[in-house]
Write a structure and sequence with these properties.
The complex is a heterodimer of chains A (about 325) and B (about 325). Chain A has about 325 residues and is of the alpha/beta class. Chain A contains twelve helices and seven strands. Chain A is globular, with a radius of gyration of 19 Å. In chain B, the strands form three sheets. Chain B has a seven-stranded mixed β-sheet with strand order 3-2-4-5-7-6-12, with helices on both faces. Classes of the chains: A alpha/beta (about 325), B alpha/beta (about 325). Bound molecules: thiamine diphosphate and magnesium ion. Magnesium ion binds near residues 158 and 159 of chain A. Thiamine diphosphate sits at the interface of chains A and B.
Chain lengths: ~325, ~325
């Protein structure tokens, strides 16, 4: 079945119906991946940590689709499954990593927080808050030496603004004019601590002031807003080779990690408020209004995604554990 | 005595010392309103309020420095690292300030603070490379710090209380693998020395030496060896800096054989120091080379089979102990 390209729709960040449908598919895939992944954790297939990206989909979808993966690179934090999917890593390999199997993206050695895919220009999840910020500055500095105006995008949470390395990295990126975009995913909480309780200024963009870096806030629930911001910002960065800081306002639906079950630090009212601006629902509503897809087609799409993911889970489960000799390999070159 | 988990024992110690001395304040991530990721500070925020149980942002270097500042002003801060791995961020404050201010000031200032948190691969599996490291040696290497690690719930309570009362900066290393394990804890106000190790199980044929979480491995190895007719003595080093070799030396004088067990990477680790001390001070008592069972020298891997292989194994302690008897 071939879909004919259609003219862009106004108010949809210039995306064609086909591109819009693709983005809906991506968001549904992340949401369902995380739901199934958490189930796998409860079934004992996954150990250690599991940080769900559910609720934050529009941030990654906007900023990663606008990248050019033939030249650009991504540095991430531990909440990395969604970004891996968007960069085109095979869900089967991501599940295999989560299951600690030899076929995982990191051969089963890294786990949930440590996905890597140099082929897909994904330079890692990282378990240390703020650990990737200076690395992303270095990646940007390396990219600056390349001819085709590449850029680096670095994701981190609101909590990372409290680390010294955030401020050092912003200074370095500006001083050396490094084309790295710092995307602060402000989901209002650093683990159980609300922004107002961990940050001296509750407008996080204000804390990125003072380095001569352009800053802006974007609605992280609105995939059109993130898409438009990403395209505009990338163009500016490619031209100027300057860093940029974005605060994307969003919300994580699950606990900080799978062990954070109580969630007694936030109210049901607040959760309901954010769910009422669910990024997937917003895009779905647009597609329905514009008669691009019907509600039924969207539900069929979701079910199709679920069965595809389930098949991948089954295959990942069949994969072997790493060979014991792997224990001591990869320590040094 | 009462059966408590390690985190409950530590919680009692904090609560008792906070009642006893109002200069005791706690700092750390998620320790207050959230009640602590590993439950050690559970209930303390409700009981003592935000002036004494201070939730910090993710600013390890600086809130450790704040601890130093509070301490030189006469407070008794207890700084929690959510996991000891994150203390790497705070190493400048630990090495250059917490450890050295007493000496640099010619003894005019002291830093009565405690830096504590869980280390090593536990309580739950799958912590992976940046969250389950055993970094004991980094602290034990640095003059000016006291470095201790309890191996059971009873000691944990008494040692933490002693650490809070100490006029020295104390790095208090909680064995992650034991965080949720239960054991007998005294209900009274008791202290356990920060100067002395202890024999945890008596025996006569071979000495098994451990610290922190590896003591439990030594005790299991001793039980296994008993089945095979070998009587092993288990020594808990407990105090890594200053290092108390007393019980280990006395034990080796009796058994003439020793195996050192640790979760840490072997090269340059605490076990290396313990073996060197045995060479220097017990050489003429030894009938066999002293060997070590350590964690594999790799970042903690995720896959279940590799993670298990990376840890020190009871079976290896048993085998090494038997080898000393051949
Ligand atoms: C240096 C360091 N300190 C503490 C932690 C433990 N920790 C992991 S995530 C986290 C909260 C971070 O929140 P935020 O940056 O807002 O990201 P989010 O989880 O909301 O995506 C904490 C305290 C860590 N991993 N690294
Ligand atoms: Mg956050």
């Amino acid at each position: 079945m071939s879909v004919q390209p259609q003219p862009p729709i106004s108010g949809a960040a210039g995306l064609t119906p086909r591109q819009l449908t693709h983005r809906l598919r991506q968001m549904l895939a992340i949401r369902e991946f995380e739901r199934l992944g958490e189930q796998c954790f409860r079934d004992g297939l996954i150990r250690g940590y599991y940080h769900s990206y559910a609720g934050q989909e529009a941030v990654g979808v906007g900023f990663l689709n606008a990248l050019d993966l033939s030249r650009d690179y991504v540095v991430d934090h531990y909440r990395d499954h969604g970004h891996c999917l968007l960069l085109g890593l095979d869900p089967e390999q991501i599940f295999a990593e989560l299951f600690g199997r030899a076929t995982g993206v990191s051969k089963g050695k890294g786990g949930s927080m440590h996905m890597y895919s140099p082929e897909r220009h994904f330079l890692g999840g990282d378990g240390i808050v703020g650990g990737g910020l200076s690395v992303a500055c270095g990646v940007g500095l390396a990219l600056k030496r390349r001819a085709n105006d590449p850029i680096c995008v670095c994701f981190f949470g609101d909590g990372a603004l409290d680390t010294g390395t955030f401020h050092e990295s912003m200074n370095l990126a500006s001083l050396w004019s490094v084309p790295t975009l710092y995307v602060c995913i402000n989901n209002l909480y650093s683990m159980g601590t609300r922004v107002e309780d961990h940050s001296s200024l509750s407008q996080l963009v204000d804390r990125a002031q003072g380095y001569g870096v352009k800053i802006e806030q974007v609605d992280g629930q609105d995939v059109f807003a993130t898409t438009a911001a990403a395209e505009r910002i990338y163009q500016y960065m490619r031209q100027t080779k300057r860093p940029y800081f974005v605060e994307a306002l969003t919300y994580r639906y699950q606990g900080h990690g799978i062990h954070d079950k109580a969630l007694n630090y936030r109210t049901e009212q607040e959760e309901a408020q954010w769910h009422s601006r669910d990024p997937i629902q917003l895009l779905a509503a647009h597609l329905i209004t514009e008669k691009i897809l019907s509600a039924q087609q969207i539900e069929d799409l979701r079910q199709q995604i679920v069965s595809e993911l389930q098949a991948k889970i089954e295959r990942a489960k069949q994969a072997p554990q790493p060979d014991e000799a792997e224990l001591t390999q990869d320590v040094l070159a | 005595m009462k059966k408590l988990s390690m985190h409950e024992a530590l919680n009692q110690a904090l609560r008792e010392e906070m009642h006893r001395d109002e200069r005791v304040v706690l700092l750390g991530e998620e320790i207050g309103k959230y009640n602590g990721v590993h439950y050690v500070t559970r209930g303390l925020y409700a009981e003592f309020g935000k002036e004494r149980v201070i939730d910090t942002p993710i600013s390890e270097e600086s809130f450790t420095g704040v601890g130093v500042g509070l301490a030189i002003m006469g407070m008794r801060p207890v700084v929690e690292m959510m996991r000891m791995d994150f203390s790497l961020r705070a190493m400048d404050q630990i090495y250059n300030h917490m450890a050295k201010i007493r000496y640099m000031s010619g003894g005019r200032l002291s830093v009565p603070m405690v830096l504590r948190g869980p280390e090593g691969p536990g309580p739950n599996p799958g912590l992976t490379a940046q969250h389950g490291q055993q970094l004991t040696v980094l602290f034990a290497h640095c003059p000016g710090l006291r470095v201790v690690s309890p191996s059971n719930q009873y000691d944990a309570k008494g040692m933490l209380k002693a650490a809070i009362r100490s006029d020295d900066p104390v790095v208090f290393l909680e064995p992650g693998p034991l965080n949720n394990k239960q054991g007998d804890v005294g209900e009274d106000d008791y202290l356990v020395s920060l100067d002395h190790g202890e024999v945890k199980h008596e025996g006569s044929d071979v000495t098994l030496i451990g610290y922190g979480a590896s003591v439990a491995l030594c005790l299991q190895a001793a039980r296994d060896l008993e089945h095979d007719g070998v009587s092993a003595e288990v020594v808990d080093i407990r105090c890594l800096r200053p290092l108390d070799m007393g019980p280990a030396l006395a034990s080796v004088a009796k058994t003439n054989r020793a195996v050192v067990a640790e979760y840490a990477w072997q090269s340059y680790g605490p076990g290396a120091e313990i073996v060197a001390r045995l060479m220097a001070e017990a050489f003429w008592n030894l009938d066999a080379p002293v060997t070590r069972v350590s964690g594999q020298e790799v970042p903690l891997p995720y896959a279940a089979n590799l993670e298990e292989l990376s840890k020190p194994q009871v079976a290896d302690i048993v085998a090494q102990a038997k080898a000393t008897l051949r």
